[in-house]
Amino acid sequence: MNNIPKVKIGIVAVSRDCFPESLSVNRRKALVAAYKAKYDEADIYECPVCIVESEIHMVQALEDVKAAGCNALVVYLGNFGPEISETLLAKHFDGPSMFIAAAEESQNDLSDGRGDAYCGMLNASYNLKLRNIRAYIPEYPVGTADECADMIHEFIPIARAIVGLKDLKIISFGPRPLNFLACNAPIKQLYNLGVEIEENSELDLFEAFNNHAGDPRIADVVKDMETELGAGNKKPEVLAKLAQYELTLLDWVEAHKGYRKYVTIAGKCWPAFQTQFGFVPCYVNSRLTGRGIPVSCEVDIYGALSEFIGTCVSNDIVTLLDINNSVPADMYEESIKGKFNYTHKDTFMGFHCGNTCSSKLTSFSMKYQKIMARSLPVEVTNGTLEGDIVPGDITFFRLQSTADNILRAYVAQGGVLPVATKSFGGIGVFAIPEMGRFYRHVLIEGNYPHHGAVAFGHHGKALFEVFKYIGVCPDQIGYNHPAGVPYRTENPFA
What we know:
The protein is α/β, with parallel strands linked by helices. About 35% of the residues lie in helices and about 20% in strands. It has 16 helices and 18 strands. The radius of gyration is 25 Å and the shape is globular.
């Protein structure tokens, strides 16, 4: 994937001048050695210029990590630390910052060898708040070299998302379809996040598509599609148009991303798209998403933003699905009950017409879009990728600016069950613990739209931290409460 950033972390150790500087020097060396022994050496850069004790040292360290190409920062309290200089590091560093502290090492060295970084973290956090500086502080930010190495490694996907958002442009085409008010997209919060948005007309896209007629590259893209689809190529007659559309989008991205490094697309797919373009764009959307350029359906701008965040965090392909329909009782009784530790209300089906990448489907074929074909000629609804979604761990999540212009989010971990859906589209049988209550008291109560982003794997911890870092108030981040932990709106007598 070349549409998400690579993270290089600079580690800067700090020291309060009334503590032995050697504590921070030696503890920094031990931390870096522990990290390199466990993880990729290219991820981390040890700032050798100085131990930061003053504002002058802070400037020197910042210049050094910048020259080294670092785009994320770890401020390491080897001892108590200088609360002003260390927080100015985070203030003036152009990227995400993390604060961690060294644990004491031995009961046999609690005189000159005692660093008091446990205490220093309190002052650091207080000063960060005074200066309105956002920084990532782990759940328990004090540890041994090995433990701090693990904390830094967990910071990488968080940092990757933060760095990516600062250089992201969302390209959208057309207004939302009629009766899709739920996918509202107040753009003020996009700018607050540092994200650029380029909103275009469907007519602009249609013109660009027509200008690609006869593009000499179409034949090669068709061959690539044929190779990917294999026996699932059920509508070969539409491949040339789909290839023309794919080239249109890719050329648009290159011509319009401007000074931004990363792009995601919020595309239009109905109601006039099919009759004018002569196909549906689902399969092309799936192919671009598979390359790390997420494409949301139905001009879902915050859906596209959520997908991009999920791609950065998981370093993997994501998808966008409708939280679509309940699992029939007979399917639950036959295929789930007694085989998996989920109640019927924990289950639901996640579905979309065909935007999920082929690598995330157990088997697939490119067909026509059944729902659209109920009211249109079948031949203009060709181009959707159908198949059951691969079983395994997933994280369902979304970031949304609601109509009142407040950033909200939700995160829930669960899985796709190895149960045949017996349905159409890109679809899976999902299970999330306490989904029924989450559905009512987070999704419905929070006025979220029906689209949810899906990351493959359990990435809830990192996503939750990303949402906090970018400014979502923690009490505006919903999650699936365990049984016995009530929601604020849950009726205690029910």
